[in-house]
Amino acid sequence: MNYPDSVHFLYALGNEMKTAKFGLERIRTVLAALGNPQDRCRFVHVAGTNGKGSTCAMIESALRAAGHRTGLFISPHLMEPTERISVGGHPVSAGVFTSAFNRVHAVVEQLLDSGAIDLHTTYFETVTAMAFLIFAEEQTSMVALEVGLGGRLDATNVVRPEIAVITPIDFDHEQFLGRSLEAIASQKAGILKPGAPAVFARQRPEADGVLTRRAAELNIPFERAADWKVCDLRLSARGSSFTLTGPSQSRLAISCPLAGEHQVGNAVTAAITLLRLGIADPAIEQGIASAQWPGRLELVSEHPEILLDGAHNPAGARALAAYLDRFYQNRRVRLIYGAMRDKAVEEVCGILFPRARQVIATAPAQPRALHPEAIAELADHPDVRIAATLPEALALVRDAGEEDAIVITGSLYLVGEARALFKGRR
After folding, report:
1. Most CB atoms within 10 A, among 225, 319, 320, 377?
2. What is the CA radius of gyration of the chain?
3. What is residue 98's predicted lDDT score, i.e. its pLDDT?
4. Domain coverage including residue 92
5. 416: closest CA among 264, 309, 263, 281?
6. Are residues 250 and 159 in the same domain?
7. Distances (CA, A) of 151 to 23, 42, 107, 125, 145
8. How do residues 45-86 score in pLDDT, each as one tens digit?
9. CATH number, domain at 265?
10. pLDDT of amino acid 63
């Protein structure tokens, strides 16, 4: 298959969340038939509810600054599936992506014919196997590997990492992971393994207890971000800077270009992880300072000011709300919001809509998108408008002036569409 065909086939496998098949037997069988490429790589394995992608991005950037040939595996993508697999700081080419897909798909078909597996690997399982194949063949020396969903039964959890990292745990995907923070944390803690140290971001007490108990059961050393101090914190609308000091008197001068106070915690977690890996202080500082993580409080236009942010769950919405309260309280915020049907839309609306002078309800171009009319019904707001598509929503803000700040948020699919539009315009 060529690249468009491979992408079409992956999409035809069904939505990643809706068709998730929990369990590692299928992915292990496929990887064994491929020669277990994951065993030829070294991994930093990162789970969590929010912040795992940006934490991975900072870790990868610093590893690259330290001279490593890096891999980065993330999900979901914003515009193209190739974004999920990066080598040396760049997404793989369509050709490399397609070659890996064809080899994985051929092995899966052979295993299906022989009865070794019961069903074709899911979208996420297939791309995970492709990533391991690419990372091994590209001879990466260290890979930042983001968990897709949960941890314990996620397809990425076939690796034996150098270090395991767990970013803040909150409510999301409760239908898969459990209805309590303790249950969700137990799933995330599934990436912890004997012999691999761990780093835990600052957590709510319920989650912290689960993680530390599991680390004790496995007799593995762990670092808690809560035991480190952030001093001289300076926040701006475009990032932060601070001094990080640890229990062993480690001292780092961190400059984080990712916007939002929540990114301070992610930078702390990334820095502690890198120290535990033995990365030198200058590489940590340089790497975090040059990290990129698109689609999260990303400024894509200055006149008028337009921000993109994938606040698709309550924790993400709270982070965006805190950012707006701090930096946009005296601006006329015009919020373009679209969401998928399986998200906590009512809760997210309750958090974000009071911060906006105007709300434009729209929908990403996805079958599972919530109709804008349904969003409007949830909105307790004096100025709500409806636009069937993102281009129609943008047409409603063409009169934006210097006092306006336009925020496009909700589904990452919507954010991806917006990035494609603005990239094309540039």
Report:
1. 320
2. 21
3. 98
4. 3-289
5. 309
6. yes
7. 11, 18, 25, 13, 12
8. 999 998 999 999 999 999 999 999 999 999 999 999 999 999
9. 3.40.1190.10
10. 98
